[in-house]
Design brief:
The chain is α/β, with parallel strands linked by helices. The chain has 23 helices and 29 strands. Mean pLDDT is 93; it is low at 1-36.
Length: 779
Amino acid sequence: MAYNKKNNKPHCHKTPFSLVIVFLSVLCVSFGVIEARSPFACDPKNGLTRNLRFCKATLPIHVRVRDLIGRLTLQEKIRLLVNNAAAVPRLGIQGYEWWSEALHGVSNVGPGVKFGGAFPGATSFPQVITTAASFNESLWEAIGAVVSDEARAMYNGGTAGLTYWSPNVNILRDPRWGRGQETPGEDPIVAGKYAARYVKGLQGYAKGNRLKVAACCKHYTAYDIDNWKGVDRFHFNAKVSLQDLADTYNVPFKSCVLQGRVASVMCSYNQVNGKPTCADSNLLKNTIRGSWGLSGYIVSDCDSVGVLFDNQHYTRTPEEAAAETIKAGLDLDCGPFLAVHTQGAISKGLLNEFDVNNALTNTITVQMRLGMFDGEPSAQPYGHLGPRDVCTPAHQELALEAARQGIVLLKNRKSSLPLSTRRHRTVAVIGPNSDVTVTMIGNYAGIPCGYTTPLQGIGRYAKTIHQAGCAGVACKGNQQFGAAEAAARKADATVLVMGLDQSIEAEALDRVGLLLPGHQQELVARVAKASKGPTVLVLMSGGPIDVSFAKNDPRISAIIWAGYPGQAGGTAIADVLFGTTNPGGKLPMTWYPQDFVEKVAMTNMAMRADHSNGYPGRTYRFYKGPTVFSFGQGLSYTSFNHKLLEAPKEVSVTLTKFNVPINSTILRNGIKAKHTNCKELTLGFHIDVENTGTMHGTHTLLVFSTPPSGRWSANKQLVGFQKVHVPAGSKQRVWFGIQVCKHLSVVDNFGTRRIPMGNHKLQIGDYKHSISVQLSTRN
């Protein structure tokens, strides 16, 4: 039985979903359901608009945009500044809902998507934090491409838009954050690469700067508190140094714009250093559009403009709030505020129509690039996509593969895993997450094609004895523990599926601790003690959990983190348990002990440790303290060795700005990256990865760099990663390119990137290599 996330009502899917899709697509076409939708703008059959210049697809887009804006009245323009943009009937333009979501599949969280009829659901991939654990860039892009196929199909059928406010590329700075599950983790390089590749998958590679769908990277910037101990995102002022902005918080957004060429960026609710992000011209106009060159629009998080006036009291009047945000670079308001107050701002001389025109130029240009003013889409690129292209077997297989690749093996005592179908014929499946459906898809999800629960997945390999053990993840009582223990005594192996769900971590809900909720730890310990066979702990969660007790308990044979593994999560978990899949995932975040959150306030935004007050720092790059499990940790059923075959041992950096004095300060602090020719400073490395075990495996190769010790240096920082499949007993050669200015640099207190002179240490698995960076004096 599957459940509608919105109303928790079951919908039957006993009939294979692909057959339902085919039947409904025939039904809808036969009875004109799809054709009955509102006409598209600039339809050639519409005599009212077909001769207007903005409808002529052969003209350059900027010409068409200028023509359209020139035909609008001021009131019509103002009603286009909000997410539920009003229709302009006299120009044949229908109303448009900008707000749709596609974080890990087409979602109905935003009002722009409606499931039903020919489109009862869409492929639901694992939550982003799980997919990030794959460290597989090509997978991220492939998921984006599938999601946009399904989004286009639904748009063609009249049930979805083309503007999707995804992905979330904020840094997972604090383990308590309820929305950490939506992000690619704590490392800015990983988050930046994820942003670029997922966006490329969503937006496609159409000619002429055209878009398949328009993605949006959010929430810019330094946003990672929702609701913690009375501090909420609507009032929080993130005090962030220029160093941390440049070195951590802004990195994924910069990559999203420069490498991903994203069509939109969303500003966040919070203030940064006393200024709301949606009213900060330095962050929006100067950085996103100026320095990075965004070709697209900037949108507010929903009701952010109202929040900065009503909650933060940033301006004296609502008209001032409207004027400040638009002049700062905001183009679109998710919410009604600009529709209500922009006219007043113009009347009071705080804003002029030219500013409104600039905003509309950015939004309408994106709509033109999407083909939304080219008439009925069937003759356009992607116009062939329809119901048959949603929830296809290939799409669902990719969702399963993504879940397999994202699962992380954290403990495997005495090679207890994989289980054997011969020796472990009966498996006790226990825990509040052992037979869940909706929990597996996390937040910002839609209605999946179907579900396979962990219990169902394991049941394909062995006879199962099922006991929930707890009534939900809150696990408030231990009344069911006896039955769970009895099941473990009878079975050849025991699998405990524990962890969290959206009642514990979610948007508007941060955690206060890192331990398993309620009596879950007691259940795990008692079942492990009773079990006659190996006991495996499987954790579902977005954020890290302190399971030190399980890590140190010899009766718990193995620990697996599955994140929120999506619609096919149960199959993927079972495949890993029984060895059909050799796990290759790595943790994309640090797992801190409980005492970290007892000592560190979530509101402290500093990344670097401060010995003067005992502040331990954050993320593997700067944290100085014990961990339960470390960033990048993850085991396999086989073993791998690394050998560096070709690697430079030194590199010379030449100043291109000759009036910079070369003195001891320059040598100590490093030269500014912008003062050298960065394009010429790429170093090539060849690494052999050997599978020395007996099982084929996919290995995640992580390359870290540790700069010379200094006041700005990180403990280490990831400079590259690759996923490589290596058959048992064989080798694969991998090439890495390391950019000196990007990967061997640090950021100073002013947010300036510098290249330190001296020895930089590279770490590749268990192999270490040193590179000497020297300053050349030649002109």
